[in-house]
């Protein structure tokens, strides 16, 4: 009779329908020395919990100080690389040949024409900006008509 009950509980266990009390009953049966021959294969499933409870962690975990030293060396190396990079850029910046070509003109007529071209280009861009402002004025007038201030 007990063997039939254990087999029924096993079926329920594998279908995930057992309660905690039924699982404890299965665990008690499979950890006992008198397990039926054809159910020996399930002994390891329920015996594992008992074995796991008896295990204890006994290894010590030493503090690792080598990583801290390596982090210090990496930060020192990174500082040196940054310092070298800044010094190379500064060296090249101050040691470039100086050119006196500042866009100056010797002939006043050429300078006048180039200035007129530059001012015409600026005026064109400013006028484009002013045209887009007309849309904003139209929007403001329409908004005032709708909301009547």
How would you sum up this structure, described in words?
The chain has 149 residues and is mostly helical. Among the domains are: 2-54, no CATH class; 105-149. The chain is 71% helix and 0% strand. The protein contains five helices and no strands. The chain has helices at residues 2-14, 20-31, 43-54, 66-94, 108-147. Helix 1 (2-14) crosses helix 2. The N and C termini lie far apart (94 Å). The relative contact order is 0.04.
Quick rundown:
With 149 residues, the chain is mainly α. Helix content is 71%, strand content 0%.
User: Largest sheet at a glance?
Assistant: none
Structural class: mainly alpha
H-E order:
HHHHH
Structural shape: elongated
The tally of helices reads 5
Overall pLDDT metric: 83
The share of residues in helices is over 70%
Termini gap = 94 Å
The percent range for strand residues is under 5%
| Total beta-strand segments | 0
The Cα radius of gyration reads: 44 Å
Stretches where pLDDT falls below 50 for ≥5 residues?
none
Which helices and strands, and how do they pair?
Layout: H1 2-14, H2 20-31, H3 43-54, H4 66-94, H5 108-147
Any key phrases for this structure?
71% helix; single chain; elongated; mainly alpha; 149 residues
């Amino acid at each position: 009779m007990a063997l039939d009950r254990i087999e029924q509980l096993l079926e329920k266990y594998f279908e995930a329908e057992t309660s905690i009390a039924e699982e404890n009953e299965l665990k008690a049966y499979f950890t006992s020395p008198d397990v039926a021959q054809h159910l020996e294969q399930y002994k390891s499933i329920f015996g594992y919990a008992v074995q796991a409870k008896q295990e204890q962690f006994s290894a010590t975990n030493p503090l690792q100080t080598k990583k801290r030293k390596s982090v210090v060396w990496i930060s020192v190396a990174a500082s040196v690389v940054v310092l070298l990079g800044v010094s190379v850029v500064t060296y090249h910046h101050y040691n470039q040949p100086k050119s006196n070509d500042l866009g100056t003109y010797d002939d006043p007529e050429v300078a006048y024409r180039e200035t007129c071209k530059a001012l015409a280009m600026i005026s064109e861009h400013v006028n484009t900006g002013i045209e887009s402002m007309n849309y904003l004025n139209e929007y403001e007038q329409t908004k005032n008509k709708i909301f009547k201030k």
